[in-house]
């Protein structure tokens, strides 16, 4: 519950290399900027441990929501399709773009190996990958919301907390379903075959049905007391049983059963679609996804049988209730006869069951692939608990005949819908932002990206490389930061920045506020994992083009509480490598406050 999607990663790409705009010259550069942010956060998220990945989903969601309006603005400019009353955008394609994405739903040709990056030459496929990533992120956010319900590391949540978690998860799943449905509608008009199953029309339809099925089951889970009771019984940190027994309120069993059948029908549609992938020669989807969708279909039908059994037991028909419970176990794929006896497993069945439950508990605590069976094991425990209780009552108090499993399954009614998938409206650029794109870019689009194909690379960045890193400050602006293999220093400052204003400075000095923001956010984010929090240092290579003057400088910065021994070591290192005197700029510098640091840069003309 729900499926643990893996987010795709992408390579670097500069829109300004392939697209130009006479009406909005800054639009390609801005799109490249926000795409670089998205690429960076996706790579960082993949390098995190499973328990840490949930905390980075908010930054990924923000990066996606920032990039999508610019991407769709480029697409509308190329296709010359604008909404009524919207500003016209003129985009010219100068050459065929080549973008790369790494699919995550396609089955690898060689089992056990990662799928290589896929080259696409269409902006439409870029939109498919980005919006699919947005939908996956919403599904993962729903998983993080549901995680406290299944964790045994702390006490079970209260009913209000449980309802709140389920409500948030349901909203995320419905939004994911609407995004997939939007992609399905949009890709219907595409005539060329897709390059991989991840962005194919059938998969969009299947994933929309899958998210709808999961959200429907969550609507039932909100008022279903049995999963909480079973989880509370297995949670060693829960002490509520000392005060009172779990409440088992009467439920609208017949309604919940039909909702579960509707969820099973949606999951069945997804199974049929995904199972047929690969017949056209374009590859198959991951076996884990196929198995999960099939398990979800079984869980939906198993829950429906349980609720029909609860309805029968509340009406005094304990025999029919036991029959429905055994029918539910049969739907889950657990072998059980009409007499309720299971096939012998040489005495290892109970040991295997305990081992499976402990493995699932470890998955929940580690945050990796928990719920990958779509809740089949949890539903099996509920059915077995109720069957054991009702069989005892039926054998001792009132003996009733138990109908056969086949007779009950054949009488299952049709499902009933709970949710309606709303139409997804992609975000668009605000009028003020789009008008600002009419100005020419204020600097050359010359930055580079680390385009390493190894997305699983761990460890600190290599200081011997000259590849750029990207940093996003709190204002949502992005700056390129290049790591140098030598520590080049700017010349000694000839003036105190606080004694001058922009108008009183000579012509060859300029205020660079964006560089100040770069220093502030880069020192806090880029190398905090290399050194303790008290020691953060950075080498910057800044390039600007202001008023037809090319500015090129190297800056060395030490900030926060830096030990004196570390400063002496840096001074010796810089002196030996550059043969230049040391200039330290930071919080402890005389006459300069770090948060108000204004960097003066000597402008060097092209001559």
What distinguishing features does this structure have?
607 residues; mainly alpha; Serine Threonine Protein Phosphatase 5, Tetratricopeptide repeat; three-stranded antiparallel sheet; two-stranded antiparallel sheet; 17 helices; elongated; disordered C terminus
Entry summary:
The protein is mainly alpha-helical. It has 17 helices and eleven strands.
CATH class of the domain at 1-222 and 420-449: Mainly Alpha
Label the structural class.
Answer: mainly alpha
Order of H and E elements: EHEHHHEEEHHHHHHHHHHHEEEHEEHE
How many extended strands? 11
The CATH H-level homologous superfamily of the domain at 1-222 and 420-449: alix/aip1 like domains
Q: Looking at the chains present, what oligomeric state does this protein adopt? A: single chain
Distance between the termini: 65 Å
Using the CA coordinates, give the radius of gyration: 30 Å
Provide the residue-averaged pLDDT. Answer: 72
- Largest sheet descriptor: 3 strands, antiparallel
CATH architecture of the domain at 1-222 and 420-449: Alpha Horseshoe
Beta content: 5-15%
Tell me the number of helical segments per DSSP (H or I, 4 or more residues long).
Answer: 17
Low-confidence stretches: 241-245, 443-449, 455-571, 577-607
What does this structure look like?
- The chain is mostly helical.
- Among the domains are: 1-222 and 420-449, Serine Threonine Protein Phosphatase 5, Tetratricopeptide repeat (Alpha Horseshoe); 250-339 and 352-418, alix/aip1 like domains (Serine Threonine Protein Phosphatase 5, Tetratricopeptide repeat, Alpha Horseshoe), CATH 1.25.40.280.
- It has helices at residues 15-18, 27-47, 50-53, 57-79, 123-150, 159-187, 201-222, 225-234, 253-275, 287-314, 318-331, 349-366, 376-396, 405-409, 431-436, 513-525, 564-578; strands spanning 9-10, 19-20, 92-93, 99-102, 118-120, 468-472, 478-482, 509-511, 536-546, 549-559, 600-602.
- The longest helix is centred in the N-terminal third of the chain and has 29 residues, at 159-187.
- The radius of gyration is 30 Å and the shape is elongated.
